[in-house]
Write a structure and sequence with these properties.
Elements lengths: L1 H30 L1 E2 L6 E2 L4 E2 L7 E2 L2 H6 L1 H20 L24 E3 L6 E3 H13 L20 H13 L3 H13 L8 H13 L3 H13 L7 H9 L12
Antiparallel strand pairs: 1-2, 3-4, 5-6
Helix pairs in contact: 5-6, 6-7, 7-8, 8-9
Length: about 250
């Protein structure tokens, strides 16, 4: 019995050793990369094609020598990646009206941003609320927020404070609107395109695609910045990759 048990233990140990060896070989093989130019196999082959990201090189010299051979394939792959990103199905939008729960219109004229509560409400709900107030002769309720019932700001300072409060909460719509106020110098704010671009960038990073379009417009027409068509196209074209269906047309 002792010989049988000892041989079983040896076989078990041997199986563990072989299994560990196979796993190590698999790991090593997965780490080995092949240079597309010289065929060198080494884990140090980490210089990737900057455009297509599909081929590896051992150094910059190999990448340069292989450029003329790889050019057509690289351009084809870059075009494929571009189309995949461009026509990728956008994620479901969560911008429903908080009152009627219907999808908000794609046009900006069909929705209203409320600086008091940060809600975006469809024009239909705003009109319905104001119509009921008018019929009941409640003049004080004509312009209050249909969602939180807050009266409109009476002064520019009050409006600025509302936007600043929403900006602290990382509200992308408030950040974009505040940027527009700085760009136009309205509501008592000084005209400051540098501040406006900074806020537009922040709003864009938080998901407001229109903010990037505002930056593109500034560069296209030279509003407060030096005209730069390349940058204008970059920012305006970037809207296509922010999941907005109406920006893909």
């Amino acid at each position: 019995m002792s010989n049988t048990s000892s041989s079983a233990e040896i076989n078990s140990d041997a199986i563990d050793v072989v299994t560990e060896g196979i796993n190590r070989v698999g790991i090593l093989e997965s780490e080995v990369q092949i240079c597309a130019n010289c065929g060198k196999e080494n884990s140090d082959v980490t210089n990737t094609c900057n455009k297509c990201k599909s081929v590896m090189y051992c150094n910059a010299a190999c990448k340069k020598r292989h450029r003329h051979k790889h050019k057509k394939e690289c351009e084809r792959r870059v075009a494929e990646l571009h189309d995949e990103k461009l026509f990728k199905q956008p994620p479901p939008l969560e911008d429903d009206c908080p009152i009627c729960f219907m999808r908000l219109p794609s046009l900006g004229s069909g929705r209203v941003y409320m600086s008091c509560c940060g809600k975006v409400i469809c024009r239909g709900c705003v009109h319905a609320f104001q119509s009921r107030a008018a019929k009941a002769r409640r003049s004080k309720e004509d312009n209050i927020c249909p969602f939180c019932r807050t009266p409109p700001a009476r002064t520019n300072g009050e409006m600025d404070k509302r936007y600043e409060k929403r900006v602290e909460l990382n509200d992308p719509n408030a950040i974009r609107n505040l940027a527009c106020n700085y760009a136009l110098g309205r509501y008592g704010l000084p005209q400051n395109m540098a501040k406006a671009c900074e806020l537009w960038h922040r709003a864009g990073e938080l998901g407001n695609a229109s903010a990037y379009c505002s930056i593109g417009s500034a560069y296209m027409f030279g509003h407060g910045v030096e005209r730069n068509k390349k940058k204008a196209i970059h920012y305006c074209y970037g809207r296509r990759f922010k999941g907005k269906k109406h920006s893909r047309s």
